[in-house]
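Before a colleague's protein record goes any further, I have to sign it off. What it holds is a sequence and that sequence's fold in token form. Would you go through it and say whether the fold makes sense for this chain? The record follows directly below this note.
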Amino acid sequence: MTVTAPTLLYIDDEVALARLVERGLKKHGFVFEHAADGQTGIARIEQGGIDVVALDQHMPGLDGLDTLERIQAIPNAPPVVFVTASQDSRIAVTALKAGAADYLVKDTQGHFVTLLQVAVTGALDRARLLLARDEAEAEIRAARDRFEALAQEREMLLREVNHRVGNSLQIIASLLNLQAGSSQDEDVKAALTNAMGRVTAVSQVHRRLYTSHNLKTVMLNQYLEALMEDLRRSTEGNRMSQLILKAVPVEIDPDRAVAIGMMINELVMNAVKYAYPDGSGPIHVELQVRNNDVELSITDNGVGLEVKADPRSTGLGQRIISAMATKLEAALERDPMHKGTRIVIQFPLVHVTEVRQAASAG
């Protein structure tokens, strides 16, 4: 690979000293150019192609500090090594504050040329490092912008998918409801109604997701309120008119929300069918957090243990409840002290941070 020799512009009104500098720097592989005053030097820099500048302080017209200030105003200006015969350290401090890459004191015999070569080489190296850093930071910013754009696109697609799935499940639930309404067979009607409730429990999760700002978690209390409303509408007469929900805000992942919804659907439907044989009564669904566990209870004040098993039952509801309890790692118990029926489901609360970390890892 061919390495291009760096071009140095030496701005100094001393022509003889400039020749000494030229001979010394050419030995070290520099392309040398000379400007006898600040204005000429600035005009040359503006043309481009200058890699580094050595700038004298004392010159007619613009002095070194004025020239340095104007060089710094040029876009992508080359690094400047400030050169002066003055021993006054205040000039050095002023030059460095104004943006000079380095500073050195010259002599009239040209002995400073070796120091100048070291200084301009160092200035070039630092300029390359700064350029590489800026390019790397620009690439990082561009990559971050691309990632954010992809993340927004992914979120939009997920929201659209949840919307479509939710709509499709709602259509299925509506068809099941129509079929149940047109059936003359009570067993078929009950089976279709139960199936509709199960589909609705899933569709409500998707509805929560596509109407929420967060696609990774569901507010369980809001989900349960919507599910209760669906159950009230799906039951003929007023058998669920006293379906009451009391729930604290809990954020949970969609899979666990589906499992909870399915269990509540089965347990509430059981209470509707068996708790009050002569009519309707209150059914309480309560959600609370105790320590690091979620406690969910479904309670009625009905016949309790005196309920008679339906010989036509297939046991599907119980199998669904057991499967969902296993998915939740939940303990499911019947409260023996309650006169009616009180089912208590307790499962560990997975914190939102853990949910999001698991989703990101997946």
